[in-house]
Amino acid sequence: MSHAIQERPVHVAPRRPLSHARLPRWTPAAIAAGSIAGGIGIGLAAGWHSKVQWGLIAALLFVLLTFGVTTKVEGSRQAKDRVATSLIWVSFVLAVVPLLSLAWVTISKGMDVLDGYFLSHSMNGVLDAEAGGGVYHALLGTIEQVGIATLIAAPIGLLTAVYLVEYGGGKLAQAVTFFVDVMTGIPSIVAGLFILATWNLMLGFGPSGFAGAMALAILMMPVVVRSTEEMLKLVPNELREASLALGIPKWRTILKVVLPTAIGGITTGVMLAVARITGETAPILLLVFGTKLINPNPFEGAQSSLPLYVYEQYAVGTDAAVARAWAAALVLIAFVMILNLVARGIARWKAPKTGR
Q1: Whole-angstrom Cα distance, residue 205 to residue 291?
Q2: Residue 114: what are its φ and ψ, rounded to 5°?
Q3: 32: nearest Cα among 90, 76, 91, 99
Q4: Cβ distance 195 to 283 under 8 Å?
Q5: d(CA 319, CA 42)
Q6: Could you tell me if 297 and 312 are in contact, meaning their C-beta atoms sit under 8 angstroms apart?
Q7: Which residues contact 10 (CB under 8 A, 6 or more apart)?
Q8: Which one, of 252, 255, 258, lies nearest residue 239 by Cα?
Q9: CA-CA 20 to 30 A from 87: which of 43, 154, 205, 301?
Q10: 84-140 pLDDT tens trace
Q11: Under a CB-based contact definition with an 8 Å cutoff, are residues 118 and 137 in contact?
Q12: What is the pLDDT of residue 60?
């Protein structure tokens, strides 16, 4: 007896295209332009005259429009990726705009006075309310004080970081790490008061650039230790093990393998510490006192510095003094920038060569 075979219908899923719809490359730029126009329009309609408010509205519109348009055309998965990218770009712009604004204001106001005469003369014989004078004595003081502080703090911080990463592991290393963390948050005025109490009051030394440099070194050391420690931890252990397997002593492995590998990051950390102490005013005001004269000896007598010069001139309040303050601020920014460029060049020169 034969049985009839009943065929069941087979449901075939529709073929999905291998490629999805994509937005044109000019879409982000178009969305950004529309967001800026929308932010300005909403700000004007609401009666807001602050360009910061317009920018924040435009940034919010950019993220929302990017998500909506991408979801409509490319799907929700791609939309999430584009929103993450948009947030990164918005954060970058929000970080760069204040920096560019600060640089533009400083350059536009500082260039009115900045010239060769300003850089090569001091304030000797010039009243603060009068026009004229220069910043040479303050620039010289800053170079000497920051240089001495770096010579004190950089080797100590580097050796401390090497101990913590390569040798430390007991209670001493834990205690050093704790005190480094505590020193990171010390206000600059506390470091100045410490040197004032010990160097000036207890030991009887007078104001000098060296006293200010010691206070700056206290502020600089924990930054150098922390940054150098993190850079040394990034060096692969395989490099250390390969060197030790060849019978090379540990100290030589650190000197010839570990430190050259991390020299770029170490230099960057030192420059961050230098940039921090270069703008300090409180320790200099307590320990160096400030002067209008040129004092090339950092170990005796009062000196000046660029941050202290800016503070003193801006406190006078006259047009000539404020112009000198802006010019000195521009010199300070240029000084830090030049130091960073030089340090980058040295780090690239000393870094180990890669490739064949």
Answers
A1: 18
A2: -65, 120
A3: 90
A4: yes
A5: 38
A6: no
A7: none
A8: 258
A9: 43
A10: 888 888 888 888 888 888 889 999 998 888 888 999 989 888 887 888 888 999 999
A11: no
A12: 86
pLDDT higher than threshold 70 for residue 18:
no
**Shortest CA distance to 288 belongs to which of 271, 280, 147, 122?**
280
Residue whose C-alpha is closest to residue 283's, from 222, 199, 178 = 199
b (16+ CB within 10 A) / e for 316-355: eeeebbbbbbbbbbbbbbebbeebbeebeeebeeeeeeee
At 212, the amino acid letter reads: G
The tokens for 138 are 């303050």
How many Å from the N-terminal Cα to the C-terminal Cα in the chain? 82
The DSSP call for residue 293 is S
Q: Which residues touch 74 (CB under 8 Å, ≥6 apart)?
A: 20, 21, 22, 23, 82
Residues contacting 63, CB < 8 A, separation 6+: 83, 86, 87, 90
CB-CB contact of 320 with 240 (8 Å):
no
Map tokens 């922390």 to a residue. Answer: 226
Bridge partner list, 164: none
